[in-house]
């Protein structure tokens, strides 16, 4: 009988994972619709957003967060440097490491692109959801953050 419980649990979690993936993909497409961050690729946008959220990071740290090789992130950062969206400098504690930071231009691009999307999303939340649903969503965001970090 325990095998059936385990199988049932596995089926439920797999179905939930499938549904979650579809919903996240749809939400991601909706959030990305409209104007992008100055026509940047998804990996370039991710790097900018990661730097905005977490501050100055090494290329290795950024590559880990993105789930890509450091060489790939290095190429992404080189492109972002050429556009003026990021700056880099040697780590004063370890000159073998390069630290990457958002430039003023990068911050401005993120503010412009993100502000429009956040305004639209905030309007949908305010117009379409009851206070108890927003409270549920707050809890869900915490769970999604745990999933993303796992």
Automatic annotation (TrEMBL):
This is MarR family transcriptional regulator. InterPro entries: HTH-type_Bedaq_tolerance, HTH_MarR-typ, WH-like_DNA-bd_sf, WH_DNA-bd_sf. It comes from the Bacteria. It comes from Thioclava dalianensis. GO terms for molecular function: DNA-binding transcription factor activity. Residues 13-149 form the HTH marR-type domain. PANTHER family: CONSERVED PROTEIN, HTH-TYPE TRANSCRIPTIONAL REGULATOR RV0880.
